């Protein structure tokens, strides 16, 4: 094994500062595992961190990205969860194993990989064993790398928090990574799924994945269309990925006692909407910031059990990170993955 590895780093905020660098192979402590990276999937959040830092206390040189699939190459003397040769995926929020999210009302916790903690855009990483879970046996490395953030976000919203039931009407906004996971998970749970998008081509592809209805949000009022499709019942669950004033539209489309999972910030970091439907319908309005390790383990088990296959728009090589980020900017159908 070489004593030197390559990784993408930046010394200051801004994608233009990304460079491919070399560093010594990381050493492991007694509770750590050395993992050889086989794939990393990109998230919109990675783009925000690269462009603005998102107000996080980043340590430079900064290594981006959070979602890794890899193979354990070495384990510390006190490690009990894994051994060399095991396939693993990273956890987005190290230290959040189950239950209530860490942090307080004044200072919510947001210590994640590719943020406060080092990222994974590196040939090898050395992290505590608790920061990983076993990878699904039914997925390849690239597919497995899409679960820690996008997959878990949809699972946490619909299953862990949402308690989705067969026959529920689910609205999925867009056709990005979280959205398509939401479509697949909701269909597996027996829900009726309505996908909204501004692209006729992407709507056709979503219908091919099992969506029951596709609504072109640029050609028609998606709220009115959802109400018509559900016989005025409304949506039992909405994956609100637009954010901003889009929340107001979701409040109009949600069913009484329905649920809106606020996930995305494509239209801004301030959400707004009318108070009347909020009061009269009494929906659950929940913010989703990925999820805990136990839920990721539940997702992995479900993936193997139901045969869920993540949708990957394109796979890039490690040296092609800039091209992959440009593709992310254009709006992929599903996920963008870097393979090593």
TrEMBL record:
Coiled coil: none annotated. InterPro entries: ADH-like_C, ADH-like_N, ER, GroES-like_sf, NAD(P)-bd_dom_sf, Zinc_ADH-like. CDD domains: MDR7. Residues 14-338 form the Enoyl reductase (ER) domain. SMART domains: PKS_ER. This is NADPH:quinone reductase-like Zn-dependent oxidoreductase. It comes from Sinorhizobium kostiense.
